[in-house]
Amino acid sequence: MGSVLTVNESQEAYFFKNGNLCDRFGPGRHVLSSNNLPILEKIINIPSGGDSTFKASIWFVSKLEKRNMLWGGGGLRIVDPYFQVPIKLSARGQYGIRIKDGGLLLLKFVGTQAIFTTEDILDQFRIDVLESVKVSISRYMKEKKININELGTEYKKLSNVIATELQHAFDEYGVELLNFNIEDINFDENDKGYQTVMEGIAEQAKLNKLGVNYVQQKQIDIAQTLAANQGAGTLMGAGIGLSVGQQVGDVFKQTLSQSAIAPNTQEESHPAYYVAVDGKTTGPFRWNRIKEMVISGDIVGSTYVYKVAGTAWVKAKDEPEIVQLLNSILPPPPPPPSE
């Protein structure tokens, strides 16, 4: 009793007795007594003289902002949301913090251990930072539908997402996150997961360039397999195609119905085409089917078509092979003579 406690500006002092937080003191000069620390009367047996000597602890907490704190780690694993393949990465950057509630911070640590250092606190923060980074990157890629090649242009937005996630973790310590920045995200090029995803991205980019999606590419693969076989060999090829997977079954049946099973010389000399019907892609159709569609009027000069392995949609009248077919089709029978 009667001890003097001096707290500097930008500091707070916290009085602990036997691991219990008794009171908090702001900047200034404080004389410890039962007047400004009433809890002393409850936890200390005060002699008749009013003075007592006992063991207690005062913890000083700085309220200054601490910036340019480095974070980083390697060997992190996320799951690519598109290909569902785990990828190994490393990331680094900076962040800044300020202690908002020193009492909550101290209770988080003092309540469990008698001695701790600034490094102990920063080690705990490092774990929380890396966990938030890993979770946020996976979630961001999934929600925004972006791949690992596009992450480099998303650092600022991704930093904001991670900062929001990280603040929830820091709230448990009474700490305010002032800023969070990503400086770099690197992927291990020797990682099999990374190589698998990159191959998938390259294949998808190729199909997009051709205007073909994955299912349509499978249609083409099956059609080419059938075209390479004749007679009994064709039926065997059809069996192989069906074994690719039940999900391709309907597409496979459609391909068979739209294509002649046994190819002839004329079929092989002409390309296959996709045909736009009511704004949707149908096909690919082989040449005999294209002829039938021209005769039935399903393909006219203004119908958009896309040659397999071509580069763009064009009107049928602008496709050299189809325009010849359009010009060669006989007109419908004339109307009956009037009586």
Could you please describe the fold and organization of this structure?
This protein has a 4-stranded antiparallel β-sheet with strand order 10-9-11-12. The protein has a 3-stranded antiparallel β-sheet with strand order 3-2-5, with helices on one face. It has a 3-stranded antiparallel β-sheet with strand order 6-7-8. It is built from 11 helices and 12 strands. α6 packs antiparallel against α7 (232-242). It has helices spanning 40-43, 102-110, 118-144, 155-170, 192-210, 214-227, 232-242, 249-258, 265-269, 287-296, 320-328, and strands at residues 4-7, 11-17, 20-25, 28-31, 57-62, 66-79, 86-99, 175-187, 273-277, 280-285, 304-307, 314-315. A hairpin with a 6-residue loop joins β6 (66-79) and β7 (86-99). The termini are far apart. The protein is an alpha+beta fold and 339 residues long. It is rod-shaped. 20% of the residues are buried.
